[in-house]
Specification:
Two copies of one chain form a homodimer.
Chain A: E1 15-18, E2 27-30, E3 36-37, E4 42-51, E5 54-60, E6 69-70, E7 73-75, H1 82-94, E8 98-109, E9 114-123, E10 134-140, H2 153-164
C-alpha cells in the first residue's frame, strides 16, 4: 500500500481539470487533443493468514508506516484476479504459499480511493520468510498481536472480523462460474 | 462499462515500458524524470434490482453493446464507496432509488482488468425511467428476461446467482466498522 493511491498530478503537460461533455465529474482533459484521462479507485487485495490459530503478520520495510505490522496485502495488478493477487502478495511479502478460504471483508478507504478485498487464508506449510518489502514475518497468537504497532486501521478491522467468524465457514459472495473469464464467446 | 477499461497508451510523450528497479512488472516510466505511471484494474459496481420479484434491466444507449440489456452498473468513482457507487449508477442509468441488500458477487474479468462488485437491491418505490445512457428501462419477470439480448457475460452470471439465492438472506463479507472511513486518527 503505497503513495501511488493518491489522486495523481496531471498525466501530461497539456492536461487541465474540467467536466467533459456528457459527464458530471471533473477529469483531466488534454487541452490539445481532448483526450480524457480517467483516474480510478485502486483495489488492494490481502489476507488474514493463519497457521495453527496463529496469525501471520509482516513488519513493513517500506513507507508508509515503515516498521509497523501489516497483513500480506498490496495493489491488484492488471489482468489478475483478486484471488491470484492475494496469493501473490503473500508470496512476495512473506515468501509463503497460502490457501484461500473465502472473502472475509470489503473495506472502502475513500480518502485515498481504495477498495480493499480481504480474504481468509491458511498457510499450506509452516514456511515463511520476509520478502523485499518486509523486515520481519512472524506468527502471532491472538493475545500477542502488537495492537499498538499495526500499520493501518483496516489491519485492525480485518483481524477483529477474522476473530468474529473464526472456526465458522464463511458464506462469501459468488464468483465467476467455473472456467469463465468473462471473455465474450 | 466503456472502452476506458483497456490498458491505455503511454500517459505522456516521454514514457517507455520497462521494469522499474525493485519491481517485477513492466510499467510506463518517464524517460526524462523517472516518474512511474501505475495503471490499475478498474472497479465496476452494479446491482440486481428487484421489485415484486421482477428484475430491472436497462437497454444500453451507448457502446459497447448498444441496444443490449444490462444491469445498472458502471465504474466506481474516486473517493466513493462501492455501495454509494452502486446506488449512483441506478440513479444515473434508471432514475431510481435502490436499497442495497448485500454483496451478491465479485467477478473478475481479467482480459479487460475489471473487478465487478454486484449487489442485490430492491427499488424503494416503483419509479424508474431511462437516464442518458439507457434507451429503455423495464421490469422483467424471470421468464421474460431477454436472455439472447443481454450485454455482457457477467449480466447472465449475476442474474443466475441472484436466482440461486432469491428469498434467502445473503451472508455478505464484513464492511467498514460503523462510522469508520479508514482515515487514521
Amino acid at each position: 500500500m503505497s503513495e501511488r493511491s493518491k489522486t495523481g498530478p496531471p498525466p501530461g503537460p497539456h492536461f487541465e481539470r474540467r467536466v467533459p461533455e456528457g459527464d458530471s465529474v471533473e477529469r483531466y482533459v488534454c487541452g490539445r487533443c481532448g483526450h480524457i484521462h480517467y483516474s480510478n479507485p485502486k483495489i488492494v487485495v490481502g489476507s488474514v493468514v493463519v497457521y495453527d490459530r496463529n496469525i501471520l503478520l509482516c513488519r513493513r520495510a517500506i513507507e508508509p508506516r515503515k516498521t509497523y505490522w501489516t497483513l500480506p496485502a498490496g495493489f491488484l495488478e492488471e489482468h489478475e484476479t483478486p484471488e491470484d493477487g492475494a496469493r501473490r502478495e503473500a508470496r512476495e511479502e512473506a515468501s509463503c504459499d497460502i490457501v484461500l478460504d473465502g472473502l472475509l471483508a470489503v473495506y472502502s478507504v475513500t480518502h485515498i480511493s481504495q477498495v480493499q478485498l480481504m480474504y481468509r487464508a491458511r498457510l499450506r506449510t509452516p514456511d515463511f520468510a520476509p520478502g523485499p518489502e518486509s523486515l520481519e514475518t512472524r506468527l502471532f497468537a491472538w493475545d500477542d498481536i502488537p495492537w499498538n504497532e499495526l500499520a493501518f486501521p483496516s489491519v485492525h478491522w480485518a483481524l477483529h472480523h477474522f476473530r468474529e467468524c473464526e472456526g465458522r465457514s464463511l458464506l462469501a459472495p459468488f464468483t465467476n462460474p467455473p472456467g469463465k473469464s468473462g471473455r465474450p464467446g
